[in-house]
Amino acid sequence: MGIIKDRFKAKSDQIGLDIKALIKDHGNKKIGEVTLAQVYQGMRGITGLVSETSLLDAQDGIRFRGYSIPELQAKLPKAPNGSEPLPEGLFYLMLVGDLPSEEDVNHVTSVWQRRSHVPNHVFATIEALPVNTHPMTQFVVAIMALQTESQFQKNYAKGMNKKDYWDAVFDDSMDLIARLPRIAAYIYRRKYKGGEHIQPNGLLDWAGNLAHMMGYEDEGFKELMRLYMTIHADHEGGNVSAHTTHLVGSALSDPYLSFAAGMNGLAGPLHGLANQEVVKWIYELREQIGAEVPSKQQIEEYVKKTLSEGKVVPGYGHAVLRKTDPRFTAQMEFGKKHMADDPLVNTVWNIYDAVPPILQSLGKVKNPWPNVDAHSGALLVHYGMVEYEFYTVLFGVSRALGVLSSLCWDRALGFPIERPKSITTDLVKLWLEGKGEIWGD
Ligand code: NMX
Ligand code: MLT
Fold this sequence. Notes:
It is built from 20 helices and two strands. By secondary structure, it is mainly alpha-helical. Strands 1-2 form a two-stranded antiparallel ribbon. Strand 1 (54-57) and strand 2 (61-64) form a beta hairpin. The two termini are 41 Å apart. The model has no long low-confidence stretch (mean pLDDT 97). Nitromethyldethia coenzyme A (NMX) binds at residues 270-272, 274, 307, 312-319, 359, 364-367, 371-373.
């Protein structure tokens, strides 16, 4: 076994024993009550999942294994001369549960480099799609094509013992993460750069190599990719992409199938696609007023128009957060450091001034503050990546780190198939009349 796999195995064996003891000693403890409204309204606030890799606090935002984003920026190893964390380090932290040394991070980088080969049939499958196919569709199709490589699927067909599931999921996850930058860059170059592909550079880190293969050699862009891939990686277990990957994985669908399912969820405009929607929305505003930097009043009018047309303001609101997303703040800090005068970035900051009071005034929006997607596109545009339909693919490459490390934990801990109880409105009515029960076993 490799060093990381050994460490993961030792850690997950220990946590597995802890969980057995917890269930034995406290399994009957009640952790909450569920109201009918919660069942009808997106299960908001129902604690129903275990996800070891990160935890979201409504006020403070995300913590990865207890560390906030500024703490990660200080503590995780960096690229030579870089100041942003290497996502390899965050992956190690989420998977193993401990902060990595520089040597650990270099080890992850070299393992992923070794495993990064993408078979030709995956490129051929992408090429079979019309070039104008949305990049997220191309991304999911490519992941599905890559499923031919799943060790889990092959071993399961041969009758793998359930004790070994985690091992095959671990290897598939490492392979898949290693291959995603090549696939993402291929889709980008195919769709936007006339199919002129760029070969990987084996000397670069995972995110730096992604930037290189997309055709961005600016050190600032490479740093942005390292930050971007770190902050988008995980947002505890209940968000659509994480929950879907976990749910599909619980049927023992292999990591390729599970991750592709999660990516179909990320492609929704209320989830990861919001990053493209934000930039599209700002471009439409600019076009409407015929100016590059709209005034506060023009932004306010545009927000009201958006709402009056029955649309959401993209990049604002959250199902759990009740304050400005620290991922937004981290990107704002990056913007101040690298591009304080950029007109689009300044517009994002002006929108941050204008939107919250308007959303608050509606009286129904639970969180009027910006989320991660309100900022990410403007930073990419600054470096020339104007093709906003591609942005969610970058989110997806990063999200693989969180959801696949979680999937390794799911199998190592032997979590069962996920199957909550559902009810019908007829049954609810009967129950209210005292004629039926709505709870399962
Ligand atoms: N603009 C307009 N209305 C909003 C917004 C917004 N940004 N956010 C919430 N609302 C509305 C929401 O549509 C609902 O209206 P109605 O009762 O008429 O159906 C009402 O406010 C209550 O919703 P909440 O409970 O505040 O939000 P919920 O938890 O249901 O949804 C989001 C969370 C994130 C889906 C929602 O805030 C939203 O649609 N935001 C815009 C899209 C977006 O930025 N998504 C990205 C999220 C981050 N990510 O990467 O996944
Ligand atoms: C995420 O990063 O997954 C989003 O902020 C959505 C969520 O947490 O619900």
